[in-house]
Amino acid sequence: MTKRNIFDSASITIYTSLLIGLFPIYVDKSGRRVVAKTNKYCTVVICIYLAFFTLMLYLGSLETNPVIAGKMYNFNTLAKLLILVVTLVGVLAMYVVFLLSYSFKPLFRDFFNTIATIDKSLAKFGHRFNYKTEFLENVLVTVAGPIFILSNLAMELWNIPREKITPIPPVLLFCHLFPFVLIHHGESQFFLTNRILQRRFAVVNLILEKLNERFVLRGKYCNQQKKIVLRDLIKNEKTDERILDFCVQSHDKLCDMCDIVNKLYGFPLIIGCLIQFNTIVFAFCYCYFSLSIRPISTLGWFLWSILRIYELARKSISAHIRASETHATFQWINKLLIHCNTHVEEKLKIFSLQLKHRNVYCTVLGLFPMDGSFAFTVIGAATIYITIIYQFQVNKPACY
């Protein structure tokens, strides 16, 4: 299995986006170059999904919803409210996300084309990415979630007659689950794009690190007038200025890609956070009150909460790691300013100023930052909310 470029390693992500209608693009050749493209047929995919979901929603409105009606579980008012919020959020997300897919699919295309250009430039410095490893990671992240969802859903459907639970009509089941799958895939794309950016930022930092080593060694041997050449970094005796110019340009392009990622996934992330918070709260409440009554159903809801915690963890950690690499760039620039020659000092100061004014941190629609602490914040808030619910319910009969 040979993977030669970013389009090969991200092929599962690209073609899944085309299949599910989320920022649909495809890969084609333009002359001798392989590029990502989007066209009117990608728009047709989005329209088909919107029309089909609207039809399913209409057919579902003709059915009695046992989840909302309280026939599937013996809900109390709070539980009904949580389920209603998640359901309405899922329906709203379907339409808004597909409209965003229509508007932003050129940005998704430009992301991969720009990354391919950066990789081609990095290859001139002798760096080769392990595209096979990236491909396997993409496959794992893209496929693991849907497999988990389908497996847990199969267990829940098998358990319905066992615990004498009112079944959900297939049309309503589709309307409930497809928005969750769509949001899950959007967050998978967010994770993978962050990993792509993090690896490229890491290479730029590696070049700066090698350049710093060169300046340090040159300073040590300046009296002996020895020429220090780092073979693994510089070929054909490239000058310091050209190397630094390349780092500045590459870093600036990567910062632009960070802005694109924030723009693409801001809305799916905030919808995902709302779904994850509500699911975690409801699942743990249900598990507490129904463990002895419906053990299999309790296990199913516990697994749903594990899935939501996993989603929170992966998106916050990936955003945090990406931001850490950009912070490392600033540290290397400061070190280079200490050991640099006078003829590159001005370029380094410009680079440092650029870093201060480029916001590469991930935010959710500009409302709050997405970093390593975010998952703990949501889980902590859910835990506090569960504790409050328990305090109100402890002296009342269980109604789950």
How is the topology of this model organized?
Elements: H1 6-9, H2 11-20, E1 26-30, E2 33-37, H3 40-61, H4 66-69, H5 77-123, H6 131-162, H7 170-220, H8 240-290, H9 295-339, H10 342-357, E3 363-364, E4 368-369, H11 374-393
Antiparallel strand pairs: 1-2, 3-4
Helix pairs in contact: 2-6, 3-5, 3-7, 5-7, 5-8, 6-7, 6-9, 7-8, 7-9, 8-9, 8-10, 8-11, 9-10, 9-11
- Radius of gyration based on Cα positions: 25 Å
Largest sheet features: 2 strands, antiparallel
Number of helices: 11
Described by the principal axes of the CA atoms, the overall outline is elongated
Mean pLDDT: 80
User: Percent helix among the residues?
Assistant: over 70%
- The helix/strand order is HHEEHHHHHHHHEEH
What structural category arises from helix and sheet content? Answer: mainly alpha
Span between N and C termini? 52 Å
Q: Report the strand count.
A: 4
Tell me the fraction of residues in β-strands, as a range.
Answer: under 5%
Read across the widest sheet, the strand sequence of neighbours is 1-2
Low-confidence stretches: 225-238
